[in-house]
Amino acid sequence: MGKNKVKYGLKNTYYAVITEAGGVVAYATPKRVPGAVNIALKPAGEKVKFPADDIEDYFGENVNNGYDGDLEMALIPDDFRIDVLGETRDANNAIIENAEATVKRFALLFEFDGDANKTRHVLYNVLASRPDIEGTTRSNTKEPKSEKLSIEARPAVDTSDVKAKVLQGESGYDTFFSAVYLKNAPTNTVEEATTDTEFDKYAPADIAIDVTSTGTTAVKNVLLDGAPIAGVSLTVANEDVTIAQAVFAGLDEGDYTVTVEFTKGNSVAVTVTVTDTTP
User: Fold this and answer.
1) Fewer CB atoms < 10 Å away: N or C end of the chain?
2) What one-character-per-residue DSSP string does 150-201 give?
3) What pairing do the DSSP bridges indicate for beta strands 188-190 and 211-213?
C-alpha cells in the first residue's frame, strides 16, 4: 500500500441527488462533475463542556456536525444547476433561476490524483449554496475564472454517517462511482454472458440481464440511456431483469446503455447493440 505525504489534483467528482420518503433515504445514480478544481473542508461542531465538583472538564463531548467548506469548479454544469440548485430549463433551452426554487441535498463523491492509495471518498449529506456571479473584462492576458460553491456536509439523516472512504482493491472500489457506497452494501455484478447484448430487428427477442449480488437487494429502476423504462415492459425476478423486445424495436441501429439500479449496492450497466439483418 502506498504511503501518502500530500494530496492534490481533485478528480472523478460526482454528485447523487438525495430523495427521502417516510424516513427512507435514497440516492440517485451519481453524475460526473467535469472540471472540478478544488475541495476544502473544515470540521463543523464544538466541544461541549460541563463543569462539576469544581472540575472544569467533569464531562466533555465533541459534537460532530460534519464539515463546512468550498467546492471549486471550472464551470458549474447545467445538470447540477437543475438537479441540485433547482434551476429549470425552458422550451428555448434557457436555464432559469427562480426565487422559489428548492435546493436539494446530495452525496458528493471524489478522489485525489495525488493520493498514493487512490482512495475514493463520499460525503453523504451535502447542501450547496448558490454561487457568486463574477467576471472581468478581457485584458492582454487570459486568466480563467472558476466558480465556487459553499457547501455543508452533514450526517446522513438515516444512519448519521458523515463520510466514507474505500481503498483501491477493496470491495466496492471498482463500482464506487456507479452508486453511492453504503455501509456493508452488497456488490452487484452482471454475469459475463450478458455484458454485451445484441438486439436484431430481423429476429427480435427480449433482452435478459442476469445479475449476481453478494447480499440482499432488489431492482429499483431500469434506465435506457438515462430514461426510465416503463414497468409494463419489465419482468423482474430477484436481481434479474428481462426487457420486452418492443422497447428496442423502434430504435435506430447503434449502441444503447441499459442501467439497472438497486435498492442496495451499486448499479450495473449493459450495452445493447441494435442491428437489423433484414435481407
Assistant:
1) C
2) EEEE---TTT---EEEE-TTSTTSTTTTTS---TTPPPEEE-GGGSEEEEET
3) antiparallel
In eight-state DSSP terms, residue 233 is G
The count of structural domains within the chain is 2
User: Both 24 and 135 in a single domain?
Assistant: yes
Tell me how long the chain is: 279
d(CA 178, CA 24): 20
Q: What SS3 class is residue 69? A: strand
**Same-domain status, 59 and 136:** yes
| Beta carbons within 10 angstroms of residue 49's beta carbon | 11
Percent of the chain beyond pLDDT 90? 48
Residue-wise pLDDT tens digits, 259-275? 998 888 888 889 999 99
The H or E element that residue 82 is part of is helix 78-83
User: Would you put residue 99 in left (φ > 0), alpha (ψ -120 to 50) or beta?
Assistant: alpha
User: Residue for cell digits 472500489?
Assistant: 173
C-alpha cell at 39: 475541495
Q: What 3-state DSSP class applies to 245?
A: coil
**Which triple of cell numbers denotes residue 83?**
438537479
- Indicate whether 226 and 260 sit together in one domain: yes
* Residues 6+ positions from 83 with CB-CB distance below 8 Å: 15, 17, 28, 31, 104, 106
Q: Which domain holds residue 204?
A: 188-275
Residues 154 and 248 reside in one and the same domain: no
CA atoms 47, 49, 55, 56: torsion sign: positive
What's the Cα-to-Cα distance from 206 to each of 100, 243, 260, rounded to whole Å? 45, 6, 16
